[in-house]
Amino acid sequence: MGSQSELTIASYDTGKSPTWCPGCGDFGIWISLKNALVKMGLGPDDVFLVYGIGCHGNMYSWMKTYACEGLHGRTLPVAQGIKLANHPLPVIIISGDGDGLGEGGNHFIHAAKRNPNVTVILHDNQLYSLTTGQASPTAKPGFKTKSTPEGVYDEPINPLTMSIAAGATYVARGFAGDAAYLTQLIVDAVNHKGFSLVDILQPCVTFDKIHTYAYYRQRVYRLDAEGYKPDNKATALAKAFEWGDRIPTGVFYQEEKPTSEDREAAIAELPLVAQPLEIPDIDSMLAEFI
Ligand SMILES: Cc1ncc(C[n+]2csc(CCOP(=O)(O)OP(=O)(O)O)c2C)c(N)n1
Ligand SMILES: [Mg+2]
């Protein structure tokens, strides 16, 4: 692990500057992620980031850690492969609402069900922003976008209720305009052992004039300030459906459960990367199949 005293947010600089639009919610998420890594003492060599395709995924170019950019929607298969190969390595997924819940929706449900020890940071702007502002699966009814000029008319996917129902063991929501609290939620999510989601309300300043920083600021409140306890699925689901004049943020649900790596006998003693490559007795192994 990197030495926390030497780490600063500058430790993750690549020398490239962000190309995000000035004011994009991605900035708040990026700074919160860097703050969280510094707080946990995870330097560029101590963590693997898997990026989706979208404005969020462009972070790959200005964030120095072990990392890869997957195909659009395929962050979770890649992340689970990395976790199987080297399960002590923290793996964080930088995904979008389109990437993670549209193209990658099926992977998302099955990853939540398996409970690998990975964290999904979901940049939830209700839009496909990189492709210039089409409605994403989380777009709310009535929202007018390039692809829905009369307003969205179908039901949105709710990342929180979907994750809780599918079996995720840490489910939280943050706001890109509150970096201090978002940092805390990311630290908690990465420290949680199991599949963790931080769904992040993220204003898109270019393609969305409705869900602005002011819009969210007037509505968001913290569950923990109201004595909420995240230990009951039914209560968590009810809270996760709350959306309107008041929008809850914080930890909706958390439970301890064996991870997919815990259940994998082949890596019980040693991570796969630390295991010897040679096959001890190839002839007797082959004889089983002949
Ligand atoms: C298989 C495939 N389909 C479609 C695209 C085009 N595409 C690139 S980014 C994107 C949407 C990104 O939306 P989201 O994940 O919400 O990211 P954001 O830009 O909002 O951060 C799409 C559809 C692609 N690159 N690959
Ligand atoms: Mg998006």
Automatic annotation (TrEMBL):
This is 2-oxoacid ferredoxin oxidoreductase. Its cofactor is thiamine diphosphate; [4Fe-4S] cluster; Mg(2+). Keywords: Iron, Iron-sulfur, Magnesium, Metal-binding, Oxidoreductase, Thiamine pyrophosphate. The lineage of its organism: Bacteria, Candidatus Gottesmaniibacteriota. The keyword Iron applies. Coiled coil: none annotated. Residues 204-266 form the Pyruvate ferredoxin oxidoreductase beta subunit C-terminal domain. GO terms for molecular function: iron-sulfur cluster binding; metal ion binding; oxidoreductase activity, acting on the aldehyde or oxo group of donors, iron-sulfur protein as acceptor; thiamine pyrophosphate binding. The keyword Oxidoreductase applies. Residues 53-200 form the Thiamine pyrophosphate enzyme TPP-binding domain. Gene3D superfamilies: 3.40.50.970. It comes from the Bacteria. It comes from Candidatus Gottesmanbacteria bacterium RBG_16_52_11. GO terms for biological process: cellular respiration.
